[in-house]
Amino acid sequence: MMSFNLYKSGDVILLEQDAGEKAYLIERGKVEITQDLNGRPIHVAYLGVGQTFGAMNLVTDAPQPTTVIAVEPTWVHEIHRDDFFDALRHEPETALVLLQSLFAYLRDRKHAGGEVFVQQAEFYTLDQAAANPSAHAAATAPVVTLQGLTHRADRALPVSPFRIDTFPFRIGRQHGDRYNDLSIADSRPWQVSKQHLSFVLQDGRVGVLDRGSRLGSLVNGRALGGSQGLPGPLCFDETGGELVLGNIRSAFHYRVTINPA
Fold first, then answer.
1. What is the pLDDT of residues 119-140, one digit of tens each?
2. pTM for the whole structure
3. Which residue, of 36, 72, 123, 141, has the greatest Cβ tally within 10 A?
4. CA–CA dist 145, 239 (Å, integer)
5. Any idea what the CATH number is for the domain that residue 113 is in?
6. In this predicted model, what pLDDT tens digit does every residue of 153-186 receive, in sequence order?
7. 58 within domain boundaries
8. Are residue 39 and residue 71 in the same domain, yes or no?
9. Three-state SS for 127?
10. With contact defined as beta carbons under 8 Å apart, do 186 and 211 qualify?
């Protein structure tokens, strides 16, 4: 039902404004997403292993909002819209993977507020992009590091400090979901939600956006998500700040450091 294809570096996988009938899951490699603005391609995001693109093609005939190009040899699983509907009947486990991606996209739209610049990418409005197109080039520059301020927080990272250099970057609780870029091991009572927050770029600044977390987060003491906080994005200072995953009682306190590329 799913085909497995290799795209060479520089191959165009999806072209903006073309009709699309497939969704894609990256097995190996990396792609770049761009969007045309006044006749020139604007970098939006990079996507890597375990991430998907084109999920909306399964449920809509709308033209492609972006161009997707392989930036290195990239292996992807592809599923056609017709096969997807067939999978709903006969292979529900496979269909569930794509439905999770689609629901994550819709959830991110809801919590971003307003019109997102592009699906599964940075949360810019087209008006912002037109007013400051250089912000998109600058948005690829920062390198973020996370370092635990408690033993439990530091131990939850694969390495410390942990480097983030692609955006959006999704963080959530470890539960076997491939749609988190960083999975945090937590135990009851949960502080970290399965889909907790995303690091994003907002006008060249690093911020975080809630993904529908139950308890929310604290960004330099400001409430993000949960029942009380804003959906975001809330931006850090130029050099970084402090991030708490969960409420004030959470052990998941992190120092966020922002460095120029």
1. 333 333 333 333 444 444 444 5
2. 0.57
3. 123
4. 11
5. 2.60.120.10
6. 999 999 999 999 888 898 999 986 666 889 999 9
7. yes
8. yes
9. helix
10. no
